[in-house]
Write a structure and sequence with these properties.
Blueprint lengths: L5 H9 L5 E7 L5 H21 L4 H15 L2 H4 L5 E7 L2 E7 L6 E5 L8 H4 L5 E7 L2 E8 L2 E4 L1 E2 L4 H4 L14 E2 L2 E2 L3 E2 L1 E3 L7 H19 L5 E5 L1 H10 L10 E2 L8 H33 L4 E2 L2 H9 L3 E5 L7 E5 L4 E5 L7 E2 H11 L3 E3 L13 E4 L2
Parallel strand pairs: 5-13, 13-14, 16-20
Antiparallel strand pairs: 1-2, 1-4, 2-3, 5-6, 6-7, 6-12, 8-11, 9-10, 15-21, 16-21, 17-18, 17-19
Helix pairs in contact: 1-11, 2-3, 10-11
Amino acid sequence: MNLLSASHLAALIAYHPNPSISLFIPIDREAPEKASERLSIMARDIDERLTALGLSPAYVEELLQPVQGLASSESFWRHQSKGLAIFFAPDTLHIFRLPRPFEQQAAVSNQFHIRPLLPLVSADGRFLILTLERGRIELWQGTSEGLDRVELQRVPEDLSGIWRREAPTVQIPTTEQGRKTSYWPATFAAPDPDAGEGDTRAHLSRLDGGLNDLLAGKVPLILAGERDYRLLYRSVSRYPGLVEEEIEGEEEQPLDKDILRRRGLEIIKPRWRREKRRAWAEYERLTKSGSGVVSDNVAEILLAASRGEVKTLFVPMDLQRWGTFEEDVGRIECHPEPEAGDIELLDQAAGYTFVHGGRVYTHGPKEVQKQDSAAAVFGY
């Protein structure tokens, strides 16, 4: 499974090739051949759609070749999570194996369709568990729907030299803007148990720095495992999202996946609810005060988001707003129905908000859910 970071989303929203194809596939890990068949069928459908748009058969065949290669790769389907997202365009291919069972869909546009990813980058969408035990360190990513061990596409250099990596997963023959990409499990051999505390402290500090570089401390991180390792990690950590509550290891009951998921959700769900209510209360308070630092106007929200000025954004999953955005001059046109050359404006606004460090929620608290428009709090 992959960690979805701000840099990944930045690449998706900044690049607008035509055509841009986005595929989302649910995965049954007990029967991965079903997903393989789905991808083959979707590739044929995309072939027909692109040909109908007037693209040459030879061009379409070359464009689809990497995706068709994935569909027939047995090794690729052995390493999956609950959902698969594929974004591709000429000379570009991004693949994410994620802990969300996406609804199957294919989108062809002049921008990548990122809306199904938003629940995974929303402020109440995911959490991490770092298991620290004698001889072993594991990183897990959880959502309300499940928990999976993380596979990092890029291990920071300062980690790769210190932690002895296990055998890699099979290299997936993909390219990311023309570059080969390997997938490594985020499971590293722990330092020698007989090493001094100073050595172990240095190792854990580098691990913490690697997570911070990748995620900027935005995803809540829960520590689990042996008490001494947890205390040592906390003493060196600079990760802003480190959660106070921890999951203690027990000799009689090893910390398996099910226990980690259950205890992780017990810790994180109350935190999610508190933070979302607090964010929505701030929006309502500022709206009533007439302060001018809130908006439900799509054009205002998108322009502010592109400048890194949105602190919190609520975007209902089913809401779409189409139009054009000339970022260099700040010109936005909104259209009641999608027209040729349009982009989905709220996808773009949500992407900018996340990339610039703002919080994104795919809905408000249930009791006050705002379904007919987006809502933003600006933070200049």
